[in-house]
Amino acid sequence: RGIEATAVPPMQSRAALFETAMKLIERIAVPVNLLVGRYQLPLSYSVVLADCPLEPMARLVASQARQDQLEGATGNQEEIFASDEVKQEAKRSRADWFGSGQSEDMLRDLSMALFQLRADAYPPSFVLYSIPEDAYIVVVCRDVECMNDPFHRELPPLRESQWLDWPLMADHFPKDAQGKNIPKAMPIAAAEAIAFALKNKQQGTDLFKQGEFEQARAEYGVAVEQLDRLDSAASSDANNTEETAIRLSLALNSALCSLKLSEWSRAVEFSSQALELEPCSTKALFRRAQANKEIHNWHQATQDLQLAASIAPEDTAVAKLLREVGKAQHQEDKKAKQAMQRAFGFKK
Questions:
Q1: Could you tell me if 34 and 222 are in contact, meaning their C-beta atoms sit under 8 angstroms apart?
Q2: What is the spatial distance between Cα 270 and Cα 291, in angstroms, rounded to a whole number?
Q3: Model pTM?
Q4: Residue 156: CB partners within 8 Å, gap ≥ 6?
């Protein structure tokens, strides 16, 4: 994997520069690899080593990210001059920088280093490292639609580090003839994609056993994304069968995590994904019925349970839930009828 390293101010020895960068990368290699898999990031590491305290640098990067957001909010890609909001943010950022006792030269050199990173065809996530403090922040550059995903903030050993999101606007990505974003990751061999997916699946299961249901679901999501990278054109029938089985298991596991989190609509969604892969999956039918029961969707829950009962008549859990759904529906209908009678003065 390629390594891009920049020092501010420049180091006299490039060997020393890359040696320092490599030591930092070794400390964070595992979580960075997970980031690459989840967010389809470029297959390269970018490190900015600066002879400057971390906190003012972090605020500077946060301000530049904010300026990008303000520029992107206009939706006008032909706009040449910065808006008043952007100018005010830039002015505030400079005042903050100098107020923390930092120099004009450091501001210029650091801004240039950040500009060169952002000018990349596929703007990478990068590590900003303070040499005097031996501290760093990880700047995660992602599509705006993914900004609410908390996955990267839970990755050990970066859990205690400082993170900063820098959104990517639509014009950062090259487009195909239909105007759609070109994928940022090339397909990989089926065996490799399946191996990555199984590894993430196991990590998700380990987290589930620890009661970390949200993190487990996120890990299952990474496994799905690993399978999405599979080169289907070069995949065998055996690979396709294994891929489908893994996708089914991941959807079922994600549905179970959602049930544990009381996120009923997500549980319905993941269960439905599993049923698209295997329409007669009693687990998927049962879990979707559990979620629909909680949101009082009695008809769908009953349909799913009746189908599950016809497939597995010996399953006592299905029969029990079917009785519970019927009883709950009866009670709700009874209450609704009584409310109507009171409202219109009908006698029982």
A1: yes
A2: 11
A3: 0.51
A4: 31
